[in-house]
Amino acid sequence: MKNQGLYRQLRAISPSQTSGKSYVDGMKSIVASSNNYLGLAEDQRLTDEAVKIMKEYGIGSTGSRLTTGNTIWHEKLEQRIAEFKKEEAALVFSSGYLANIGVISSLAGEGDVILSDQLNHASIIDGCRLSKAKTSIYRHINMEDLREKLMHSQHYRRRFIVTDGVFSMDGDIAPLREIKTLADMYNAYVIVDDAHATGVLGENGRGTGDHFDVAVDVTIGTFSKSIGTEGGFVAGSRSLIDYLRNRARSYIFQTALPPSIMEATIKAIDIIESSPQLQVHLQHLIRSIRNEFLDYGFDVRGEQTPILPVVIGDSEQAMAFSKELEKNGVFAPAIRPPSVPQRESRIRMTVMATYIEEDIQQICKAFYKVGKQLEVI
Ligand code: PMP
User: Fold this and answer.
1) Rounded-to-integer distance, Cα 72 and Cα 75, Å
2) Which CATH number fits domain 13-31+276-373: 3.40.50.300, 1.20.810.10, 1.10.357.10, 3.90.1150.10?
3) Which of 123, 200, 254 to mutate to test the pocket of ligand 1 (most atoms within 8 A of CB)?
4) pTM of the entire predicted model
5) Rounded distance between C-alpha atoms, residue 183 and residue 146, angstroms
6) How confident is the model at residue 363 (pLDDT cuts 50, 70, 90)?
7) 365 alpha carbon to ligand 1 midpoint, in Å?
């Protein structure tokens, strides 16, 4: 792995008192690759809620939801998510990863087929692997390929189409309306992982379904991106949630999240729902940074989402790019295979609604300088 430039190392990040900046291994930097798109992870209002509940209840939840870990705060959050997503019910998991593996593997079984987008997140892939269903991978966002695969899947007991709402490494959006039309034509269920769309797309950040005004069968998500806390969820019909509560192994056998996190998550959803200006401002920043990068001549993927991947190509070159960015006070790690396809290593630049003008200028200047220096542009 070292020889191929694929060896991975940890970096220690700690907050600095300066707006938009953090310390990365002791060096002050702008973190230009966080999933904290709305800046809520360090929002004082969330911290206050968490501390209040922590003082009242303690730190750990002590058990799984079905034994001693369930509290009124877990149930309150589930109701809040259902309301926010305009679904009948919701279920909280300890992470988005666990939600994906738990939901997919308990819904799809022997005799079923899962049609999965080529660029779906690893947790969806693992969910498919854990299920006993046949997985058929369709070309990324390619509706013709999906149609063909659905046409040849009519002999399976049931068909599930599973897709990211916003693709984590490419920042593009799944064409949910077309997916739903095909699903209806070929009698398939639609499962959407809305990890990167929640808080970003749709009215009040409701997600990809709302963005396209399409209802899907199952919506999965995480609190670890725009919402700024921790945990995962699934939202859908009451019978779906009831079934998953009884069957999803990563829900049943996992210690519940602490109540403090539940309360902070409720606060975050309240803030997102009542502050549409956050999404408007984020979209404005996305457009201006993206246009600037395109003007420089970068291969920028994605649109309308805070994920702006700058494709460099070779793994070693992407690593060198990231290292040079860091010398210029910008932290954005290189993303390499297997997270992305071979020869498509990239810098996964992300935009945060809390960037100030000075941050944006520093990020743009650093990308331009390093792009020229390494002859990427
Ligand atoms: N789905 C997608 C699309 C993701 O990007 C991620 C996180 N990288 C997850 C699921 C997993 O969420 P969590 O970090 O809460 O486990």
Assistant:
1) 5
2) 3.90.1150.10
3) 123
4) 0.95
5) 10
6) very high
7) 30
